[in-house]
Amino acid sequence: MSISSLFAGMDISATGLRAQRVRMDVIANNIANANTTRTATGGVYQRQRVVMEEAQPTSQAGSAQPAASVGVDIASVEADTSPPRMVYDPGHPDADNAGFVSMPNVNIISEMVDMIAASRAYEANATALTAAKDMVRATLSIGRV
């Protein structure tokens, strides 16, 4: 294993850390707005979701080797277009004539499950990054004898 492949592994883990941090931020925002019936743009809050894609490799100047995959990128953060939940609450200021309120399409249980998955993915990337760092440190210490 070459030192450059260790650094490539660290880069891949770093992109995973960034992607999972964004994912956790979006999930936290969904949970925080689970009861928001009025947004600044008008209407009920719509659940957001993160769309990830393979990072586009960058070729090394003067390198004869093809560029390798370098992790993950955030393609976009999109609104979930599923319909809002309709809740009967005639006393709510946003209730319609029949007493129903359009509530955000956020399911707290699903969001918590997604948060746990994002947290575990973050931890896995952090562990991989630490392992690669330790391997680089051990490799560099070989020459110190």
Structure commentary:
With 145 residues, the protein is an alpha+beta fold. It has one domain (3-142). 45% of the residues lie in helices and 16% in strands. It has 2 helices and 4 strands. The protein has a two-stranded antiparallel ribbon with strand order 1-2. A two-stranded antiparallel ribbon has the order 3-4. Helix 1 (3-32) packs antiparallel against helix 2. The relative contact order is 0.22.
Task: Summarize the topology.
Elements: H1 3-32, E1 48-54, E2 72-79, E3 85-88, E4 100-103, H2 108-142
Antiparallel strand pairs: 1-2, 3-4
Helix pairs in contact: 1-2
Name some characteristics of this structure:
two-stranded antiparallel sheet, 4 strands, 2 helices, two-stranded antiparallel ribbon, elongated, alpha+beta, 145 residues
- On the 0 to 100 scale, the average pLDDT is 88
Number of helices: 2
Class by helix and strand content? alpha+beta
Low-confidence stretches: none
Count of individual beta strands: 4
- State the distance separating the first and last CA atoms: 21 Å
Overall number of domains: 1
Order of SSEs, N→C? HEEEEH
Task: Summarize the entry for a quick read.
With 145 residues, the protein is of the alpha+beta class.
